[in-house]
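queue> pop job 88
queue> type: inverse folding (structure -> sequence)
queue> payload:
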């Protein structure tokens, strides 16, 4: 075969391959990292699979436990493996922006006025609202004899047995102060000395959890009878596995799950497309079929029934009982607090 015809054949094969990719909808990929368990399963069904079907963009999933250092190391090494990350920590977004390891998000294709207050920042977009709340077994605590606040959670005489808290100072120190009688409106700045003294009272009765799925696992196995927990995990377990669990909204710590994009993400454009897709009201409503976290889009609430609203942390009935997590305070004080936290754990 003469070289001319050889190169012509290569061109024809290349064009045919491109056309075939267009026909089959193959338009690249996006690597999404989230928290696993029932939460990521909900994202998969509500966001990832429908997005992939509509756009032809392949969604590849990864997991993490919220370790800020992982993203920082990836960016520093210029070896960014994730394109889009779910982060539950406002302090990480602020630090990431200050450290220059996050991409600034492009909201030009979205109407920012449709979002609830606080859902957007230059470097993050709120996916949903969640609460770190008190959960307990209803077969152990029956009728009106159940823990109604964190003070009750600390009451080892009235409610004996093991209980579980997050092995992280974020929200755990807030909970310790609320248990010690600090008013929600006066929670910040955190009184660290008082918080650690409060934790000392129940330290020997704590089973620590490090991932969002563990509190439900501990409650399910009866290793503990009550736990701090991301509220949506409880509802998912009740719905799917019919576990005898309940959430107490009183004194919950309200926060956001957020989309962030690591600096240097290989599929930045596709990551933004997935963010835009997950911001549609009907898509956020779809998420509620799988987990009861509150939408960040105002219109997503328009078609919800009263029954659907009462299981959401952002419904009027539940919102007023909770306190907003202060990510700004944590961003300024986290390093100092972590040092004290690690020292306290070793005592």
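queue> result:
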């Amino acid at each position: 075969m003469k070289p001319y015809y050889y190169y012509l054949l290569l061109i024809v094969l290349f064009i045919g391959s491109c056309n075939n990719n267009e026909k089959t909808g193959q338009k690249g990929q996006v690597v999404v990292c989230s928290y696993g368990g029932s939460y990521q399963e909900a994202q998969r069904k509500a966001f990832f699979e429908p997005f992939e079907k509509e756009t032809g963009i392949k969604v590849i999933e990864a997991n993490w436990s919220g370790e800020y250092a992982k993203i920082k190391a990836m960016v520093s090494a210029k070896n960014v493996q994730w394109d889009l990350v779910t982060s539950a920590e406002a302090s990480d977004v602020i630090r990431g922006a200050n450290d220059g390891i996050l991409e600034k998000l492009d909201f030009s294709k979205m109407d920012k006025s449709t979002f609830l207050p606080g859902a957007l920042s230059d470097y993050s977009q709120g996916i949903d609202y969640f609460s770190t709340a008190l959960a307990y077994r209803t077969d152990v605590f029956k009728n009106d004899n159940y823990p109604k606040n964190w003070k009750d959670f600390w009451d080892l005489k009235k409610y004996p047995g093991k209980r579980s808290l997050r092995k992280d100072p974020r929200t755990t120190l807030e909970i310790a102060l609320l248990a010690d009688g600090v008013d929600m409106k006066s929670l910040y700045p955190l009184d660290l000395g008082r918080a650690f003294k409060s934790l000392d009272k129940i330290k020997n009765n704590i089973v620590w959890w490090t991932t969002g799925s563990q509190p439900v696992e501990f409650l399910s196995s009866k290793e503990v009878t009550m736990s701090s927990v991301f509220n949506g995990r409880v509802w998912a377990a009740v719905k799917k596995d019919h576990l005898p669990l309940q959430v107490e909204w009183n004194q919950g710590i309200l926060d956001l799950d957020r989309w962030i994009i690591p600096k240097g993400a290989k599929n930045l454009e596709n990551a933004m497309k997935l963010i835009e897709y997950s911001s549609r009201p009907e898509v956020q409503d779809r998420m509620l079929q799988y987990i009861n976290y509150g939408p960040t889009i105002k219109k997503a609430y328009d078609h919800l029934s009263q029954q659907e609203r009462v299981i959401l942390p952002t419904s009027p009935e539940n919102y007023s009982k909770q306190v907003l997590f202060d990510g700004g305070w944590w961003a300024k004080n986290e390093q100092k607090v972590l040092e004290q936290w690690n020292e306290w754990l070793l005592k």
